[in-house]
Design a protein that fits this description.
Distance between the termini: 58 Å
CATH architecture: Up-down Bundle
Largest sheet: none
Helix content: over 70%
Number of helices: 3
CATH class: Mainly Alpha
Order of helices and strands: HHH
Number of domains: 1
CATH superfamily: Ribosomal protein S20
Radius of gyration: 17 Å
């Protein structure tokens, strides 16, 4: 257990931050799954729309440094290639 007031506060902040970041990571994963499902269904219009929304989510989460910018770029690149391949 934390001994000082500062350490107790940091522990509380850490718990709150972890909860918030976990929900954002979950939102990211859900968004990516929706896009992959649209791609798997073969509907190019739905996949393109889902990809656009997912790109926005990925960028927002990378800006907050919840995921690394290179990981964000990798996700966007692979999803874009998959949507493009639907032609």
């Amino acid at each position: 257990m934390a001994n000082t007031a500062q350490a107790r506060k940091r522990a509380r902040q850490s718990v709150a931050r972890n909860k918030h970041n976990s929900s954002l990571r979950s939102m990211l994963r859900t968004s990516i799954k929706r896009t992959r499902a649209a791609i798997a269904a073969g509907d190019k219009a739905a996949a393109a729309e889902a990809f656009q929304k997912t790109t926005s989510v990925i960028d927002r989460i990378a800006d907050k440094k919840i995921i690394h910018k290179n990981k964000a770029a990798r996700h966007k690149s692979r999803l874009a290639a998959a949507v493009k391949a639907l032609a």
